[in-house]
Amino acid sequence: MQTYKAYNIVGTKGLITADYHIPFQNNDAIKVMLDYTINKDLDFIIILGDFIDCFDVSYFNKEPNIIR
Asked: Are 19 and 49 in contact (CB under 8 A)?
């Protein structure tokens, strides 16, 4: 069993974001987020996950109309 150490975030102003799914990202949505946060003087940024979409190696269903 692997143990994880807690990470202490320094600062009080941050951006928490997720689900970019590059190369299938929505560039307009990312631009809105960047435009909104560009001058906010953030202390930290946390990217929760799904930064890259690995469609080719994913075991999830590739047909959007089929429920698994």
From this structure: yes
**pTM (2 d.p.):** 0.67
Cα Rg for the chain, rounded, in angstroms?
16
Strand partners, 45: 15
- Could you report the per-residue pLDDT of 10-57, keeping only the tens digit for each? 899 999 999 988 888 999 999 999 999 999 999 999 999 888 888 778
Please state, in angstroms and rounded to a whole number, the distance separating the CA atoms of residues 38 and 4. Answer: 32
- Rounded Cα–Cα distance for residues 45 and 36 (Å): 14
